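Re-run with default settings, no changes from the original entry. Doing this only to confirm the output is reproducible before filing.
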Amino acid sequence: MKPKNRKEYIAKLLTLKGAFRLVKTEKNNQTHVEYYESTTNKSCFEAGYVNDVLIYLNLSNEDVPGYTEHHRGEYFFDSDFDHKRQSKTGLTFDEVNRKGIKEELECGLIGQEEQYLLNQKVIYSKLYLTDEHFVVNVDLSGRTFWQKLFGPEITNIEGVTVKTIDLKGIFSGI
């Protein structure tokens, strides 16, 4: 069966091999949202559509709060898989975008999350997503701007431990 639209296509990719199952759908203003839970770990995909345009497909997992927070609010652009296209929000349902989404889901996550923990709670993360020299810092400490600016660096706080998680272990692909 060939999918007729973006929703069917994403559902087929995520559920075909039993890796994920659709657990909830809702409408938030103009956005139709679908939630898929992993059948093997704590991962969850959230897919957002406006009409037949996929505007986001975000993976979350409580074991990697830095990665989850970093990707919250990330949207697709029509130029993501074809740089010659005009950049507008969302992916239309065509062959180039279908292939791009499928490749991303098959590949899984690449990189590492270096977590800084205080009292067993992640308070800071460094994400190394594609290149070990490109780092995304995510502060989960709840400190104010002034505390971040004038307070001690996370690495200098007494009791902070560091743990590294391979993102491929969180989502290795479908």
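The two ends are 19 Å apart (CA to CA). Strands lie at 20-28, 31-38, 44-50, 53-60, 112-118, 121-128, 136-139, 161-166.
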